[in-house]
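Running this now, will post back.
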Amino acid sequence: MAEKNTEQTPIIFLDNISVTFKSRTGSLFHPNLVHAVNGLTLKLMPGETIGIVGESGCGKSTTANVMCGLQSPTDGHVYFKGDDVTKRTAELRKKIGRVVSVVFQNPATALNPRMSVHDQLLDPLIVHKVGSEDEREDRIRELLGIVGLPSSAMYALPGQLSGGQRQRVAIARALSLQPDVIIADEPTSALDVSVRAQILNLLTDLKKELGLAMVFISHDIQTERYISDRIVVMNHGQIMEEGPAKQIFEDPKDAYTRTLLAAAPSLLHPKLGQ
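Update: finished.
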């Protein structure tokens, strides 16, 4: 049972969770099962950035979906600030939605192509009944400034923006409700190399300035070293190794981690973080 009301209470605690899907193989009455996540335990502390890394199909995105409420675990428990939220009511989902935001891989599909930037940012404020009309407009202008977009972008449609600008809009939308946690699922993989560095630097700056906790999902372990405090290496739905980023890179214990490090040249701009 998770402890409550202490400074050390995790924002999110996954307690021995498993997620199983029915595959398209097997018979109608005896389908084969795919264990996307198998017996995983993970804690996200306030202000911490966890990097979850592994090859495609390792279970990292499914883990992120459980964290933000998009996927229920087949087994195990999910705690949010000490409260068991494994079985989520509509009220719980709305509560979690205010403090856990998601930035998806491709901003072109994450944003509504027929809504202006202004309306994309206004929408969550209306849904969660945040502020007066004037306060919402002030918040939209503030969000554009936070992510480095000019005010001239306010009434543009997503199709009129570059990929990097669209991802900045997606990040602004994720920040609109002043969340405690941002879950970023491969947020730079659909972008050009030079733009990746800009977005990662933006996320790093926001983490420091706003005190955010962050879960950063990537298949590129070199990307994780620039943004993560702690790295979790996953394979076949299980954690193979976890520890401080410095330790994972300088003294990896698991053979799979060493394989990832050897196989993954950095896809980032060489001046990132300088």
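Residues 20 and 181 are 26 Å apart (CA to CA). More later if anyone needs it.
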